Amino acid sequence: TTNKQQTAEPEHTLTASEALLSLPTATTTTMRRNLSIHGIGVLSLLLLCLSSSIVPTALALEATFTPNSADSVENGGTGGALPQSLQQRKQLLELESAIVNSADPSATLNHVASQNDMSAEDLMGMLEQNRNDLQESGQLEGMMGDVNAAAMQAQQQGGGGGGGSMAASLPRRVVSLVISIFMALIKTASVHVSRNPKQSTLLGMALVCTLLAVHNAPRNGIVVSSGSFPPFSRGHTTLLEPPIDYLERCCVKSWEKGGGCWTSSLPEPIESSMKPKSSKSKKRQSATKAVGGVGMTRSLEIDTSSAEEGEVTVETSRAKDEGFALITTAQTLITMDTDTIVQDTDDESSDVEEEALDCMNESIRAILDERKFSEFVVPSGNSKSLKFRSFLVASEEDEDDVMEGAVMAMKSLGDFGRYGVQPLCISYEMDDDEEEDGEPMIHCVAFHTLTGGHFDGELRFLVEEKKSGVVVSVTLAIPKGGRAPPTRLAESMVSSLTQSIAQSSQIRMKQTLARRRQSRSYRARASGRASMKRHLRYEQEKAQEAMAADRKRKWKRNNPDAGHYRPSGHRLRSPHNCGLT
Asked: Which residues contact 299 (CB under 8 A, 6 or more apart)?
């Protein structure tokens, strides 16, 4: 019986191995190895049969397998004998790692057990016994390292188990969904094209145009024409309102293409005779001046006596006898509301008026210096949407040689009533110190047009100081032979710029006054606190001196030797080292 039991144990081991081989393996390499082991076994059986046929045996021993009931997990066993192959033990470790790292270990354990016709308790006991055997033999740590390395590599390649594979599969599912939708659209489109070729072509062209418009609208406003191509286009035109950065890039590119310079679009200057409106002599004296070319508005005189507060007055004249095809001027008067300013402060009215006038001049000067001419342009009624941007361009040869350029974009200035882009360049700039005669002038700056725009002329911004306030005027002058914009469009341009400058100056003046008033109040509070601290310190020192004098007086009164004591210094020494005899 003992021999039969010992002989039956290998059959029991083989049966367990076959059961484990029926488990799902992790990789194709393991399946190949299992198939090779199975082939070796078959070859061994063939060799055994051949040897048995050659060498006759005297006795055949039959062995039967009887499972040991004590090995059952239900009876407290470990599940029976385990296979002796290290590869199969490694597979069990991989199975255990996959179960533990899964999202639901218990469900995974039950699923694996049901696939192999086992109970969950039997499978768990088998895995525990495998781990214990490997731990006793000292091979557990090495195998676990290999198993973990293989799991990490599989997870990096997208084939790992557990939560990593689920997280990695989500993007792939989204991509596959998008691809499937795209393929379905392609199939539907191909069917539609085959049935309706004309409609499909029009629909495809409309779709392409829409995509191009969506792409170019925020970048350049959908360029219709990039220059002047008569009679098809008058100049640079965009379908939508162009961004300021795009306008600046266009001017810089034209500067680079021109070899470090811009080309003026003004006609050649011509001598024109003009009669002055007023003269000290009774006879009117005629004078000649050059009209056309850069700086032609330097000697242009505009009557600003009709400027009114809070309103923009626009005047248009076609002074052909003076050499101009069109002169459009918008002007307004800016006054200081001293009553409101005096109510907000405790200072005298004369000081407040002087300070308000100073703030007004400073604000207007800052606006013209910073070229903020279209900061408050609001399109309403006759006013069109307008943008103005000034920038500096340095020469490639000399960085100190800087040229100032500008660009203006206005609605209805371009082709088909769309946005027209007008490049500009500075003509001259004058301050009040440069004006010799006439009324005192605060600031004046002028820009002339460049090639590629929609009109040929010069745009002048002028600020004059008068007794009643400050007059802001914007003038557009078109010489003879130059292209002139429509009169309504020219009036809308100069009026929008004038109103924007006036509103910007008033807002900045109020901000400057508020900052100064706040600074004065802060300095007053700080000065008051400092004087209060000095007064308190003085009072404390005075009280301390009085207490010291009173203490000294009491000490002299109670001490008969007061005033006769002279310290010798020996009292500071130790009694043993005083040196006294």
From this structure: 289
Q: At residue 502, what is the residue type? A: A
Q: How far apart are CA 102 and CA 118, in angstroms?
A: 20
Contact predicate 514/340, CB 8 Å:
no
> Angle at the Cα of 145 (from 140 to 151), degrees rounded to 5?
125
Residues 6+ apart with CB under 8 A from 19: 116, 118
388-443, pLDDT tens digit by residue?
988 888 766 666 678 889 999 999 898 888 999 999 999 999 886 544 555 566 78
Q: What angle do CA 424, 393, 388 make, to 5 degrees?
A: 35
What is the pTM assigned to this prediction?
A: 0.57
Question: Which residues, at least 6 apart from 412, have a Cβ–Cβ distance to it below 8 Å?
Answer: 384, 418, 420, 489
Asked if residues 264 and 450 have their Cβ atoms less than 8 Å apart, the reply is: yes
Angle at 137 between CA 133 and CA 138, to 5 degrees: 115
Mean pLDDT of the chain: 75
Give the residue carrying structure tokens 């799902």.
24
CB under 8 Å to 368, separation ≥6 — which residues?
443, 445, 461, 463, 501
With H, G, I as helix, E, B as strand and everything else as coil, classify residue 275.
coil
**Interval 228-247: pLDDT, tens:** 777 778 888 998 889 988 98
Nearest CA among 72, 83, 68 for reference residue 15: 83
Q: Is the peptide bond before 231 cis (omega within 30 degrees of 0)?
A: yes
- The amino acid present at 96, given as its one-letter code, is E
pLDDT at 322: 72
Distance CA(221)–CA(420), nearest Å, equals 11
CA-closest candidate to residue 509, choices 332, 352, 329, 348: 352
Q: SS3 breakdown of the chain: % helix, strand, coil, rounded to 5?
A: 50, 15, 35
User: What SS3 class is residue 40?
Assistant: helix
**Per-residue pLDDT at 350:** 59
What is the DSSP code string of 469-502? -EEEEEEEEEETTS----HHHHHHHHHHHHHHHH
CA dist 360 and 304 (Å) reads: 19
CA distance 554 to 517: 56
Environment class of 510 (CB within 10 Å of its CB; exposed 0-12, middle 13-18, buried 19+)? middle
Residue 388 class from Cβ within 10 Å (0-12 exposed, 13-18 middle, 19+ buried)? buried
Q: Where are the beta strands (DSSP E) in 166-278?
A: 223-225, 237-238, 270-274
- Alpha carbons 495 and 314: distance in angstroms, whole number: 7
Query: What b-and-e string marks burial along 242-269, b requiring 16 or more CB atoms within 10 Å of the CB?
Result: bbeebbbebbeebbeeeeeebebbbbeb
Residue 188, pLDDT above cutoff 70: yes
d(CA 521, CA 516): 9
